[in-house]
Every structure is written in C-alpha cells, then in structure tokens.
Amino acid sequence: MTGTPRTGVLIVGSGIMGSAVARLLRETDPALHLTMADGGSPIGSAPGRHLHDVDDPALWSRYNEQVGSGIQGMYTGAEVVRDAGDSLTGLTPGMFHALAFGEDAEAMPAAALAWNTGGMGVHWTAATPWPAGDEVFDFGDPARWAADLATAHRLLSVTPAPIGPSTVGRTVLDVLRRRYEGTGPDDRRPQPMPMAVTETGSGPMPRTAPGTIFPALATGGDAAFTLLTGTLVTQLLVTEGRVTGARLRRVADGTESELHADAVVVCADALRTPQLLFASGIRPPALGRYLNEHAFITARVLLDLDRFGIGLDALPLPRVGEFSTDSLWLPHNGAAQPFHGQIMNRTYLDDDGRPLAHSVGLTLYTPVEARPGNRVLFSDTETDLAGLPRMTIAFDYSAADRALIGRALDEVRSLAEEFGPFDPATESALLPPGSSLHLTGTVRAGTADDGTSVCDPDGRVWGYDNLYVAGNGVVPTAMAANVTLTGTVTAVRAARAVLGRVTALTAP
Questions:
Q1: What is the pLDDT of residue 59?
Q2: pLDDT of residue 203 exceeding 90
Q3: β-strand 295-302 against 355-366: which pairing, if any?
Q4: What pLDDT sits at residue 318?
Q5: Of residues 271, 286, 266, the one with CA closest to residue 111
C-alpha cells in the first residue's frame, strides 16, 4: 500500500525478550530501523524501568511490600485484579488475571497477563538460575548452547551471589549442603541465588529490566528506534509464506493502521504470542499445545534460634531497599533431586527496629510433564477484552506429575523441620496453576516441522521465512527452575537469525 510506513524489524512486545532482541540487533547494526509495539503503557516516568527502582515512592513501596511474599502472582498485584472492566481504554497499567481479560482460564486460575510497557520484566524477582539436564535444548550443538547461554547472562547482567549469604544464611546453606550432599556436581550444590542485578556498595541493588537491557526503551536517544506504547498488534499481514507487516490498533481511540516490516519477531508472552499467530491465520498443529508450568510449593518456617545457638542480636538485617537477608538456591539434579529450590530468608523486627525472629522461606518448583493436551485454545467467534480471539486454557497434572508433587510436599515438610517447628497444614501450600507465571511451551521449538513444534531452533515459524518467535513460550522442555534466563536464550537465537535474514536482504 502506497504511503504505508515501513520498518526493518517489528518487535511485538516490550518485555525482557523483546528488549533482548532489540539490544542484539542494535549491537550489530546501528542503523537498522526497529519498531517495538506494546498494548500497555509505562508504569512510572521511564518505560521499562523495574518497579524495584522507580522514583515514585508510592510505586516503590507497594512493590517492595508485596515482593516479600515470594509468590509472583502476589507481588505483581495480579491476585487482586480480577475485573478489568469492559474496555481497555484508561486501564491502569499493571498485572491482571487472565480471567480479568475475559479468558476462560479456570484450569489455570492464577495465570496473569502484563498490561504495561516492559511486560513482566518490570515486576520479576530477577532470579536467574541456569538450566541443566533435561531443561537444556541444545538440539545437538552443546557449544552453541553454551555460547548463547553466556550471551543471555550478559544481557541480563547476572550476578552470582548478590544477596547473602549472611552469617545465618551460611548456617542455612550448611544444612542444605549436608542434606543434599552427593546429589549433583560441585557447581550444582546449594549456593547463593544468581540474580539479574547490579551490585552496589550499599542500598538497593537495581534490577535488570527491559529499559536497562535496551536503554533506548527507557531513555530514547536512538533515531532508528520507535517505541509504540498503547498500541496493540491485532494481526500479522501474510502473503505467500511471508509476513509483510502488521495491523495496529491504538488503544486510546481505536485508530487502526498498518506497518510494513522486513521481519517480525513476536515476544508477547506464552499466551499472547500464540494468540496473535492464531488471529493472523498462522495455525500450525502445535500452536498453543504443550502449555507447561512447574508446580509451585511454598512454605515458611521460623528458624529455631536455640537449636542453632543464634542470639537475637546476631540476626542479620537486610540492606536498605532489600527485603531479604539471603537469596539462596537449591539446584535440581535429576531424579536424585528433581526440585528447584528458592530460599529467601528475612528477619522480623519490632516497632523499634530490633530483631524478633528469623524465617526461612522455602519454595520448591516441581517439573511437570510436557503434554500436548495441556494447551491454550482460541475461539474463531468470541473475543477477549483486547478484541483478540478468546482463550480457553486446558491444564491438568498427570498421574506422574501428582506423584512428584506429593514427593515435593513431603520434601518441603522434612526440609522445613530441619530449621524449626513446622506445621505443613498452615505453613505450606501447593499453589494454584499459573502462580509462578513461568509458562512455557505454547510456541515450542523443534528440529522438524512434524506437528510437535511451532518453530525451528532459531525461532523461525515453520512455513514463514521472516516470522520469528522468542520467549518462554519457545522453550520445549519441562522446566524445574525459573525460566527467564532460559527464555532469553531463545531471544539470542532469534536475533541472530533475524540479522542473517536482514543482512541477506540488504546485501548488494
């Protein structure tokens, strides 16, 4: 269409995955025009800045008070926003239950959607454990996997041990190491949790977020980059196996337009990426299938100070701006130790700031089988709050999943009792599906277009030579650990493939 604006690469979604793609494209080609579109608006004054680091005292306090729960759906605020009304116009940016957007999500009742610039990347805890064992999808090329994982570490600014161990944290680590001795190699022993943060001498440590991965997102200053906030991509335009661009709709007034692009990368999350493909008539057999999320078991136990010979005055205090004294990691190690453990400890204070008690916060993530019947389906006739095909989530645990979850519940009880008196009925819980917000598999990668995958190992959608997907939905393996670092590997691969395509198009 004459006069239709054009961009080199359209990136759908402004979260961690979209910003990682943009960063890598820009590092290689300073002149390549990039357009990033997101239906949500910024939270705070800088798009894509983490809520842990915003200047607004009210926003900062609300986030940092909630994050102490260690439960993603709670610290994002998603658990309270179940009704978004009947229009996106004027919707306050933030996290919302999928149910609030009109989706049929009762099978995964805690599943949530980010409706803000920066996506989940402005809310996350920044935990970045590295994948191992069955989590790895190297497609027969371990050297390339190692290099891509190293790039993901760099993009996220992963720091090995930013929070702890304190003196008490070392005591907790000693218990963990004794208990799990011999279950894995030395680099998979219990250890501090690696996190995507910037270490500072004192005070809060800034979290890596979309606006730090790709600074132009937050601060501008890149003449070849356009950020479209409050702008939904409602359909990809397809002609003979190529995506020529996209149809856009401005949320505020419903104005529609088109944008042509040489390549498109969809990084819209594990639910909305397949939704957009479906809305565009791109419907490979595996689209929306293999929806996965590790089961989420949480517990908290007060440390028995007498048992460990610790006085109240010896309890550690958190750094200013941080809620926990220690963030520790229990890596999974195959059948011998299949659970990923995230241990976040804190000291409770009285009104005068004196220590009262210390708690050990235990989370066990339990891997769940990747099965095609766990899926998100899309309606041809009904639409959601965004005017896109309404989702129906089908998700359940298999008999093997339930057996492993039962084992994890026993494990968390036995582990908690190592630290103090514990009542599993009141101090632990198996949370509803969706609670971790770590959804994977719905646009999974594979080595062959055989109906079990949506894209090739580089994220190129089967049958389309310039359409790519990136993010957690591309991960084809059952994950025990937090998925963001692993998902970033898919962004690394997609960016490299897009650069190869764009370079070929512009070569003399």
A1: 65
A2: no
A3: antiparallel
A4: 87
A5: 271
**Active site annotation includes 33:** no
Query: Buried b / exposed e across 62-95, counting CB within 10 Å, b at 16+?
Result: ebbebbebbbbbbbbbbbebeebeeebeebebbb
The whole-number average pLDDT for the span 158-174 is 97
List pLDDT tens digits, range 244-263.
999 999 999 999 999 999 99
Q: pLDDT grade, residue 89 (50/70/90)?
A: confident
Residue 303 contacts residue 168 (beta carbons within 8 Å): yes
- Backbone torsions φ then ψ of 248, nearest 5 degrees: -115, 150
Say which DSSP state 431 is in.
Answer: P
Rounded to the nearest 5 percent, the helix, strand and coil shares of the chain are 30, 25, 45
pLDDT at 310 > cutoff 70: yes
User: Half-sphere exposure of residue 209, counting CA atoms within 13 Å on the CB side?
Assistant: 28
| pLDDT tens sequence across 433-480 | 999 999 999 999 999 999 999 999 999 999 999 999 999 999 999 999
Average pLDDT, whole number, for the chain? 93
CA 66 to chain centroid, in Å, comes to 18
Given its phi and psi angles, is residue 475 left (phi above 0), alpha (psi -120 to 50 degrees) or beta?
beta
Q: Which two tokens stand for residue 96?
A: 């919302």
Exposure b/e, 205-237, CB count within 10 A at least 16 = b: bbbbbbbbbbbbbbeeebebbbbbbbbbbbbbb
Do residues 135 and 480 touch, judged by C-beta distance below 8 A? yes
Run of H or E residues at 59: helix 57-66
**Residues 6 or more apart whose Cβ sits within 8 Å of residue 274:** 287, 288, 376, 378, 442, 443, 454, 473
Q: 438 is written with which tokens?
A: 């770590």
The pair of structure tokens assigned to 222 is 């890149």
Identify the sign of the CA torsion 349, 350, 356, 360.
Answer: negative
CA angle 214, 217, 223 (to 5 degrees): 95
In the block, tokens 């998603």 appear at 78
| Cis status of the peptide bond prior to 165, with omega within 30 of 0 | yes
Confirm if 7 and 261 have CB atoms less than 8 A apart: yes
pTM of the model: 0.95
The SS3 call for residue 93 is coil
Q: What is the DSSP string of 102-125?
A: T-B-TTSTT-EEEESTTGGGGT--
Condensed to tens digits (0 to 9), the pLDDT of residues 356-402 reads: 999 999 999 999 999 999 999 999 999 999 999 999 999 999 999 99
Residue from 52, 123, 294, 438 carrying the catalytic annotation: 438
Alpha-carbon torsion (487, 122, 81, 248), positive or negative? negative
- Please name every residue paired with 7 in a beta bridge, in sequence order, or none if there are none: 261
Chain-centroid distance, C-alpha 312: 37
